[in-house]
Sequence to fold (522 residues):
Amino acid sequence: MNIKKILSFVIILTMLLSVLSACTGDKGGDDVTTPSDTTTAPAGVTTNPDDSEKDVLFDVSAFKSSYNGETVNILCWDSEHPEFEVNKSELSGGEPLLDAIYSRNMKLQDALGVTLVFTEHTDGASLSPEVLKYVEMQADGGIPFDIMAVYSRTAAVLSQKGHLLPVNYYPEYINLNNSWYPDALVAETNIKGNTYYVSGDISTNLLYMTYGFIFNKDVLKDNPDIGYTEESLYKLVEENKWTLEEMYKLIGSYWLDADENGVKSTEDGFGLRSYNYHFDAFYTGSDLQYLTVDNSATEAGKLITISSDYIGQKSIDLADTLGDLLASNNACNDSDSGWNFTKDKDLSIVTRVRDIQKIHDSENNDMRYGVLPIPKYDLAQADYKCVAGNPLTLWGISADTVDYDREVIAAAVIEYMGYLAQQETTEVIFESLFKGRYSEFPEDAASFEIIRRTTSFDIGRFFTEVISIDFGIADEWSSAVAKSQKWTTKAQMLKRLFEQGVLTASNDFWKLTDTLKPTPKS
Fold:
């Protein structure tokens, strides 16, 4: 485990008050957390950042001397989990994550000497055209945003339309090798040398939305014929041997006919319970891609293409095997899978890790559960890959300001936000899900670290609305699995359907490389 991460995790501060977090768009009064607010921080909250990773940060003091007193305008979205603003007037106590966000924002403002102003816009699936129109209206009106922190698919559209500057234009401020950025961020999102947005610890929604394999320890213990123990599962993960083959063996040994009618129903207990759009966690987990970026391409139309994985034999075999599993008595495709798992009958569920909270909110809140990464395809696969659901935030630098200083300020704020978030919010999220600190759940903490470290950023998931507002290139494969449909024929038809949208995206990003440049320093 990364030592720097461990150091930052153990420095989480005691926070006694909490707040209701929401981006309001109101730029006045107590709704804006200003540097002067640090004098009224909750007891136990300091404004001096930890020193564990300051050696990899830009010169904070020099930045403050140049930009002290500046206001930073951030477009954010009505995200599913608190991430952006916490207002002093709403501090009331009881929500550690809100305390952490408040502390993070105040520390940033104090350290950099800036004031953060958040403006919220409704965003989510199929809403990228509306957000794009709003961004263009603000820019045309002479009041562009400095930072855009929006829904993942909207960020993809904004980048394609030239509204986001590549973060790699500002290497003196943003270091993409820092530990608060997942390893795959650059490798999977870089297009012709450019990375247009970041995520990681900076996005609380990313941490909640990343997929995991959650299992019921008591069901495992009470059914020794399954052939696994919680210790043996954790050991498989530790030894990099947790594969689909092991998962199939595990879940293929369990079905509880709860209503004793001899027929499969959602009220039964299953080896695996999940739902439609969750199944592509296995696609990504098997190291398959939706889109391929060829940064060595010599022509525009070859820069971004539909991956050969999409119609390849591996994805066909995986879809067929999972489809057969779902048709058996050992697995269930259930629209209410998260809540039904809390009934304490299922062995496992594949879902976003935030669904662990449903256990705490249920009558079986004493359930003993554990979390594992999504299994690898086989032992030949080098590492785990854990995809995140699309309701995560991608943070980017606005290209609309056309002002060197505004771009520098945006870059510095994004970097420092990620740095502080790793200290302030990440372990708090773990504690809220597992009801304890990392040290109390070492095996699950190790899995959680793997999930964070191996988070996938396949642009095919983000570019769905770039390609087609009606059909999701990343949604159709999991839909076929959920319906136990054969992927062979459907894949060829979908490839033809998506090719024009992918070609347009490829051409657009090719042109951006030549036309989109950082504003020269005056």
About this structure: Confidence is low (pLDDT under 50) at residues 1-51. The longest strand covers residues 71-77. The two ends are 44 Å apart (CA to CA). DSSP finds 21 helices and 16 strands in the chain.
